[in-house]
Predict the 3D structure of the following.
Amino acid sequence: MRMTFAWLCRLGLAALLGLGVAQAAPVQDWPAPGKPVMLVVGNAAGGGTDVIARVLAERLQGVLQRPVVVENKPGASGMLAAALTARSPADGQTLLVTPITLVTTPHVLPKAAGGAVDVMTDLAPVVQLSRGTLLPVTRPAQGLRDARALAARAKEQPVSYGTPGAGSPMHIAGELFRQAADVPLTHVPYKGVAPALSDLLGDHVTVVFSDLASASSYLQSGQLVAIGVTQAQRSPLLPEVPTLAEQGFRDVAFETWFGVFAPAGTPAATVAKVGQAINQVLAQPETRRRFAALGEVVVGGSPQDFATRVRADFDQFGRIVRAFGISVD
């Protein structure tokens, strides 16, 4: 068959147009067909982060109509899970669900710990799931009505405070309070919040800096009382408890959070899709109810909002850890 110049030109133009379409094709749709979305958690099953992740997985599965599974990867204070996520394909199929310890732990662990992941460059913030508070709790028999009374006690006699471990956000909160109150306090680190609260109930320490979820049942039963919260504003979940800043300890004002991260390099369009789907979950009344039962207030928002928060907290906690010389024993 004879091919005319005009026909060849039309063929060449079609090929070029086809090539242009291929080059401009969008990234693969998220979630990928036939593949589950995996939520990686740096704690064992049953822990606070694991419960948050499983609530999210259940609700997100309903939004996506695709399987969403939770993968527990405990170790190195959550850094192993961060490293696993960072080294996964940047397609939005593997996501990290983590508490605020993601930005505190790198300042207290050796750099090589947990796979030497750089949380500020190897991960992409997607969305802040929630915010929470820390709170000093004590036994009613101690007779401490508030944090001012705790500071006054510490000026007269030895006072100890328990935390779930050296370098934890609770330890940082305790040191901030010690500095703000200008009193001597003895730090007693435990391997988790539960043993710290158990020793508090046994009158082995004066006070414990805890998260709300861990202390909630003891507060409801009257076994323990909260004498302040670390948030700048009162927690809507404990509106009757004054902030530490209200009580004169203005430098003790920070809140905790849970958030979702993707591997660095994940296309912005994919990150946006993931964030939109999770925001749909967070808008559901049932999600808000279940998060509140875990001591968390739903937040949501854009990847940019969360990235700003992560950077600010990372820098702030770095300064605090260096100032107090905090390290893991």
In short: The longest helix spans residues 303-324. The chain has two domains: 37-132+255-324, 134-226. DSSP finds eleven helices and eleven strands in the chain.
